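HUMAN: Now follow token order:
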Amino acid sequence: MQTAATEFAEVFKFRFDAKIEASDGDAGKLVRVIANGQQRVVTDIGVQVGLLFGKTYYVPIDLVSTATADIITVSVPLEEMEKSITKPEGAELSRSTGIMVASKRFGELRQLTIHKGTGRLRHLVIEHGSRELVVSASVVTSVASRQISADLGSASVSQLTVYRPDEQLRQAVYDAIFDYPRLRVELNGITIHAIDGVVWLRGYVSNDLNRRMVEDQLQNMPGLTELHNELVTDTQLAADVAMALSHDPRTAKEHIGVYPRLGEVHLRGRVTTSDARQAAGAIASSSTSVKEVVNELLIDPSAEVVPVLAGITNEEDKVPGSY
């Protein structure tokens, strides 16, 4: 089963029976999702107010403020919600919606994840026997009331990924990195995002080897379907900033040392003018990969050398061979 790489985006998760909160308090639970079957876009949600045989009211997706697997908040009061009893047009989906694969019932729908900005389907969580499986919406071939058809290609059930809640997967990734002592000190620079089995690693590590080792630590992790390693290394960051400084006429002839630490770039050395010092900070800050710039450059009209070692006392390092 081949699917396109998943792009990072903010999402809404609609898990049936999730709690609904109106702007003035508890409102009920999620029992329906209305979707445009052709465009694969969610347009409305159905909220059951009251226990057992309570009435279902419909809320347009643009009135949903937040939506996680546990709780959904809407921006209108309950009284306003109760005015919308007519079911909107579109495919009506619920926890009894069947997932059909090769014309056979494969399981039942338990959760939908959509792109927050567009409403487009991203992932489905399907109950298959005693397990919940997560699949990309790219395998969906049709969406109709109470039935979704999907093409899993040559993938067998054993090749599908068991669904793991986002926070649980994120913690598992964190623990796997923490368990390797060499990488433990890098964790402060790493941000982990997990959405429906897809993990994005963002932030900074010190070098290329550690970047590869982080990825190796996550091989064959249960619940992980796709890994995006977007970590930036300090070595690359130093090279990028140094290159930018050398290409800018305001700093090309200045003696500037670039010392990154997990995305925080320290500029050290001596420059001939205050304008050069200010320009160096601006150039370093303009790099999209830089988290923060600490400008420690000193102004010295007679500056001739750049420190070649990163000092830990904020004093200028001696140049080997000069003492």
